[in-house]
């Protein structure tokens, strides 16, 4: 399997599928790429329309890591990729930074030009959903969409300097779930369905960006686009090191962002303090472990960076019951027969 591809236009990625060990089957506007067994398992499904809308989703398990480098002078107007399982790594040459996009997160690219690379790791289940939307597609939807496009362009400068993982809210997750559960088999009905989904996604993204801008205006601290990018990196570092998190001072030093701006900016951007966010993600991981594994309470506490007594206290304060009680309740729910 060739582990380094050069992509100069959106179609290149699919045109080179054979080079990364895929075979393809085509039916009208629906394309399926199935990975050859010697390279792993999985497939990519793509729906591509002349109107300028391209939708794809995939589940992959690769035996060998592969990277594709992107250098496009002309690209889709709006690109969003949501990770349903595992993770992918993105290097953005515009900011010269790398980002890991994890399960439940997405990233958006609204750059006029695109330079960077994406890496799919080996020996891990990777799932994603991606929408590529052209300006022509938006223009074809309604006469008034030129206002829509103008608004996106006004957000482009703000957002360009801070491509980063964004934790998907409930609405984005629901939209993405609808995408892979599409039951339309007729080409026309399927196209209309994806058109509606694409507009819904853009609307949700714009709401997200407007929220950030409003938070900046309400905040007592002025945040630049670079500051916002660093704050997302701070959140990522806390997530990746939740069992042994850096102190505020160390985090500030690592990111070259003063502690005052780190604390106030984090609160403005994520409506939570750094330690409040850390507590929430620790307890969420604990909840998943309690529900889906047989790890002891002490082991769960250790995995998220708490001692046993502190973990029980914090968990009960958050959920109203002890970890042991939560585990018993979750297993009772799983074993209970469905109501008719």
From TrEMBL:
- Where in this chain does the record put each HTH araC/xylS-type domain? 232-329
Instruction: Output the superkingdom of the source species.
Output: Bacteria
Keyword Methyltransferase present in the record's keywords: the answer is no
Which UniProt keywords are listed? Answer: DNA-binding, Transcription, Transcription regulation
Entries under InterPro entries matching the protein: Homeodomain-like_sf, HTH_AraC, HTH_AraC-typ_CS, PchR_regulatory_protein
**What SUPFAM superfamilies does this protein's entry cite?**
Homeodomain-like
List the GO molecular function terms. DNA-binding transcription factor activity; sequence-specific DNA binding
From the Swiss-Prot or TrEMBL record, give the protein name.
Transcriptional regulator, AraC family
